[in-house]
């Protein structure tokens, strides 16, 4: 054996062994992780009320000897796995835990037992998958250097979001992770595949509440009233010009108003109209300008027509930006683990995620886990009463995240 071979051969052998080990462990623990997912799925809890879920996470981690702490950001759980030389570098992994106020329509044995609450956004899958990753990394902890911080985050669905609260409570300190990974189920792609996008990926989100005030009265005598329905209609139409005339054509911007309440009658003009909607975009400066424009335009139009408009804009999550260099590396690692045909390039998405707060602090990579199974009819969209996943995706989810972590700790 030449010295050159002697130096290089063991390195390749080790990494090859680790990838095989991770695949074997993902397969070995798949049944356990599926039962954890089903337990969480049948006991869904709303934002910041995830007490049972937190208990379930802690007991699963305890079972495998993984050090953890409950009660961060009320119902969050944080765990730490120490490899060799644990101070060297820390990688953070995040899963969200909360469910939605939706009544489940799936006829499955793990159907929600909490009427009107459902894991319709797959956070049960994220949590179970992260427990699976934790089990794998705990088993392989003598194979990597550094530490892994596992962040089980409450309340992704509801402002202000658990991520912000966890960061305020110091989740990114002691030890401070250098980078963070998170994943989200994606019914658009088949189980076994994942999707990634570097740079800007998900939108900022804000909620807009407008109250248009006029003077109500008899519908047959409009000249005696100030009609808030007409004013509100003008406002809705005019605001779309922010999207079509003020937004840069290469800057996606969405203003959608799903609530328009004018509680009059056929012959009664009401005193006020309430409008509510959302605003999404991909640039923080432009986001501030949209808010100013919405306020100025809504108030100006109302005043010019003799009425008034109160504007309240509830600040939501920021733009989610995947770190370029980290995401490019992650894509390469994902191809090593899953094969090129199973790693898909994603496009910008105008939904929002509070993982964005983590990406404002440290380099982050948030990617999508395919959960669709066309043959078995598992195709429902997120946030619907029939959403479900192909649970085989958990094997991909937990294994890939373990692989990304080990590679990032080299
Ligand atoms: Ni979600």
Commentary on this structure:
The chain has helices spanning 3-28, 30-42, 51-63, 123-139, 162-168, 228-246, 284-304, 324-338, 356-361, 393-408; strands at residues 67-72, 76-82, 90-96, 147-153, 179-190, 194-196, 199-202, 204-213, 217-218, 253-261, 268-269, 272-281, 308-315, 320-322, 343-345, 364-372. It is of the alpha/beta class and 410 residues long. Helix content is 37%, strand content 25%. An eight-stranded mixed beta sheet has the order 1-2-4-3-5-16-6-15, sandwiched between helices. Strands 10-12-8-13 form a four-stranded antiparallel beta sheet, covered by helices on one side. The chain folds into two domains: 9-202 and 320-409, 3-Layer(aba) Sandwich (Aminopeptidase); 204-315, Alpha-Beta Plaits (2-Layer Sandwich), CATH 3.30.70.360. Helix 8 (324-338) crosses helix 10. The structure holds nickel (II) ion. Residues 121, 123, 156, 184 line the site of nickel (II) ion. Nickel (II) ion binds next to loops.
List keywords for this structure.
single chain; 410 residues; alpha/beta; Aminopeptidase; Alpha-Beta Plaits; 2 domains; eight-stranded mixed β-sheet; four-stranded antiparallel β-sheet; 10 helices; 37% helix; elongated; disordered N terminus; binds nickel (II) ion
Short structural summary:
The chain has 410 residues and is of the alpha/beta class.
CATH fold call of the largest domain: Aminopeptidase
What structural class is derived from the secondary structure elements? Answer: alpha/beta
CATH architecture of the largest domain: 3-Layer(aba) Sandwich
Helix content: 25-40%
Characterize the main sheet. 8 strands, mixed
Distance between the termini: 26 Å
The CATH fourth-level homologous superfamily of the largest domain = Zn peptidases
Global outline: elongated
Q: What is the total tally of β strands?
A: 16
């Amino acid at each position: 054996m030449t010295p050159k071979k002697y130096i290089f051969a063991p390195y390749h052998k080790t990494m090859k062994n680790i990838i095989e080990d991770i695949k074997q462990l993902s397969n070995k623990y798949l049944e356990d992780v599926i039962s954890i997912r089903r337990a969480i799925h049948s006991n869904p809890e709303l934002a910041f009320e995830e007490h049972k879920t937190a208990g379930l996470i802690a007991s699963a981690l305890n079972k495998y000897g993984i050090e953890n702490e409950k009660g961060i950001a009320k119902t969050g759980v944080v765990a730490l796995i120490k490899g060799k030389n644990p101070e060297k570098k820390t990688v953070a992994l995040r899963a969200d835990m909360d469910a939605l106020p939706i009544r489940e329509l799936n006829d499955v044995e793990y159907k929600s037992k909490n009427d009107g609450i459902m894991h319709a956004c797959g956070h049960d899958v994220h949590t179970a998958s992260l427990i699976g990753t934790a089990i794998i990394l705990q088993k392989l902890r003598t194979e990597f250097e550094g530490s892994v911080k596992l962040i089980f985050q409450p309340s992704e669905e509801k402002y202000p979001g658990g991520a912000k609260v966890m960061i305020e409570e110091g989740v990114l300190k002691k030890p401070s992770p250098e980078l963070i990974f998170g994943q989200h189920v994606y019914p658009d792609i088949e189980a076994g595949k994942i999707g990634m996008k570097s740079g800007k990926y998900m939108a900022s989100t804000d909620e807009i509440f407008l109250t248009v005030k006029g003077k109500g009265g008899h519908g047959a005598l409009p000249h005696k009233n100030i009609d808030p329905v007409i004013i509100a209609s003008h406002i809705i139409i005019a605001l779309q010009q922010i999207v079509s005339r003020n937004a840069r054509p290469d800057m996606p911007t969405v203003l959608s108003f799903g609530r328009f309440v004018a509680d009059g009658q056929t012959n009664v003009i009401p005193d006020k109209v309430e409008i509510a909607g959302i605003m999404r975009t991909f640039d923080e400066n432009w986001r501030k300008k949209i808010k100013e424009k919405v306020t100025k335009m809504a108030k100006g139009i109302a005043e010019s027509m003799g009425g008034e408009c109160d504007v309240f804009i509830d600040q939501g999550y920021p733009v989610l930006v995947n770190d370029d260099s980290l995401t490019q590396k992650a894509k390469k690692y994902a191809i090593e683990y899953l094969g090129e045909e199973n790693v898909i390039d994603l496009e910008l998405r105008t939904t929002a995620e509070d993982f964005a707060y983590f990406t404002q602090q440290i380099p982050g990579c948030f990617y999508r886990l395919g959960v669709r199974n066309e043959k078995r009819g598992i195709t429902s969209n997120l946030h619907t009463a029939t959403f479900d996943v192909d649970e085989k995706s958990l094997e991909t989810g937990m294994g890939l995240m373990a692989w990304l972590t080990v590679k990032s700790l080299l």
